Structure formats: C-alpha cells, structure tokens
Amino acid sequence: MDSKIVNQFIKALTSIFAQVTNVSLTKTDLEYFPDGHKVSAKIAAILSIAGAFKGQFMLILNEPMALQLTSVVMAGVPVNNSSDLVDSAVRELCNMVAGEASKRLLEIGFNCDITFPSIARGKQIDTASPSFVSKFECEWGELQQILKFEHVSQIK
Amino acid sequence: MSKKILVVDDASVVRLTLKHLFESYHYNVLEAETGEEAVEKYKTFKPDLVTMDITMPDMDGITAVIEILKIDAKAKIVMCSAMGQSNKVKAAITAGAKTFIVKPLHPERVLSVIKKYLD
Ligand SMILES: [Mg+2]
Predict the structure, then answer these.
(1) What is the pTM of this model?
(2) CA-to-CA distance for A151 and A129, rounded, in angstroms?
(3) How far is B59 from chain A, CA to nearest CA, in Å?
(4) Going from the N-terminus, what domains does chain A have, and what CATH number goes with each?
(5) What is the pLDDT of residues A90-126, one digit of tens each?
(6) B42 Cα–ligand 1 center, Å
(7) ipTM for the complex?
(8) Which of A112, B62, B68, B96 has its CA 20 to 30 A from that of B50?
C-alpha cells in the first residue's frame, strides 16, 4: 500500500502546484529511508495524517521559492521578504496538496484525515520513522516532499 | 447598500485574496480566522453570505456551519476548502452549507457561485 499512497501525494503536489502557480514541477528523485531521514529545512510546512494510516506530510522549500509562490498567489504583487503572509502561502500549499492527496486516497479506499499545517524555519528535521522523500525541480528551484509513516507495519 | 460577506479561513493569504476579490466587486467584507471567531462575528456582522474553510485551528468549518445555522437558519454558507473528499463534501452539505468549492480557488468560479446566492 505504501507506493500507492506515496504516488497520490506526488500526483497531488504536481497537480496543485501547477494549478496554483502555472509553473510545472519535475520529479527528480524518490527515495525510501526505513530508519528515518534528516534534512535541514529553510522552510518546512508540516501536517499530521490520521485514519487509514498514521503519519506526517511535509513540504520543504527555500526562501526564494516561498517568495515567488506568495507573489503568484497574491496575483503578481512582488513579495521581497518573509512575513506571516509568506508562511501562510506555504501552509496553504501544503494544506491543498494534502487535501488533494486525501481525496485521491479515498477514491482508492484509504480514508484519511489531515490537520492544519504548521511552519518550521531553519530547523534540522529528523523524521526518525520510515519516510519517503521525493524531490522536485522547477524554474524557481528545488522542492522536497516527505511522507513519514508512524509505524513500520504500515509499509509493505 | 452593499451586500456583506464574512470570509472564514485560517490562512491570511486566502483571506486577503478573497477580500480583494470581493471588495473589487463592491461587497463589504469581514474576516475571521477560526470557526469560533466566525460564529461570534456572524452574530454582530450579520453577513448575507459566508465563505467557510474546513481545516482550521480550534473549531473546524463543518462545526462552524452547524453553529451558525443555530443562530440563523437562513444563513448562506459556501464552503471553500482543500478537503475535496466526497465524504467531507457530503458532511458539509448535510451540515447545511449551500455548496462546496474545492481549493485552489479560481476567482471567476468563486464570484459566479457567490453571485448566484446573493442575487
Ligand atoms: Mg485552512
């Protein structure tokens, strides 16, 4: 069930990102870390997942991409420095991706619920649980998505 | 007098975008960032329509719909949420929301829906 689940999040991210920004993401890597994964995150949006499986979903990006994203969401108004608005745009992207993934998951029989996302800045993140890390690229830079499973028993 | 819209979403970027959109069409807009705040503001602002997020800290949007309808059974509430799963849409409509728009929000779609319920 793991690859099916991970794929829904990958499809959700590429679809939502393109709809919101009109910029297309290319997946460059997908790796599985059975013992967890450490990453230093400039900006991370993190939310919890419950239901058919228990875990966390994270989007990790850098400052320039977050500013570009916010600017596009705000109909092109230039955004030059970080603010609550930038955090809110990153949080909302995470919320929309997880919402779209949940919709896709329900369609294939996994009923999941998500919490509202929180933002961490300049943190060393250690998932310390089985994690799938996907990397994406676009004209604004690199973006990472991490899907962390709370229990190894849920990975096949 | 211009019609009043209460915009409920925990994301400031969403509230700001909707506020700009509605104000450019001369609606009078008030914002709330949680379900609880929405219920409180509904009582005093008495909006003609509410746009309601689902995933928010403290009270979620579906509970807020139920609470608002207890205050005003004729309240017009349009869900604007990223939670497009069929079971969430059904729960929102069962709770009494008029309709459901799945995020990302497209301005033309949002406008056509709110106009349908306001005119
Ligand atoms: Mg929300």
Answers:
(1) 0.94
(2) 7
(3) 12
(4) 2-154 (3.40.1550.10)
(5) 999 999 999 999 999 999 999 999 999 999 999 999 9
(6) 19
(7) 0.92
(8) A112
